[in-house]
Amino acid sequence: MSPDEENTVLWVAVLLLPLLSVLLVVMDRVEDRLYTPAPAKPRHAARKRHLRLVRGAAESGEPATNDGRSEPRAA
Fold first, then answer.
1. Per-residue pLDDT tens for 7-18?
2. Per-residue burial over 11-24, b = 16 or more CB atoms within 10 Å of its CB, e = otherwise
3. What ranges in the chain are assigned the alpha helix state H?
4. What span, in angstroms and rounded, lies between the C-alpha atoms of 70 and 75?
């Protein structure tokens, strides 16, 4: 073996155990986060504050009226 190959083997041997240990800890944390149940309380805004795709659309499902505020434009 040449001295360069010996140095490479030494660095791999020295760094392999710490890198595998870090990988094990990270994967343990990821598994814990994946398998814990979701919180009971939703984290998003209240139902009334959700954005609507159509301006003025009511929750009852009625179509919105066009008051001339927005006109279709060419792309």
1. 999 988 899 999
2. eeeeeeeeeeeeee
3. 3-35
4. 15
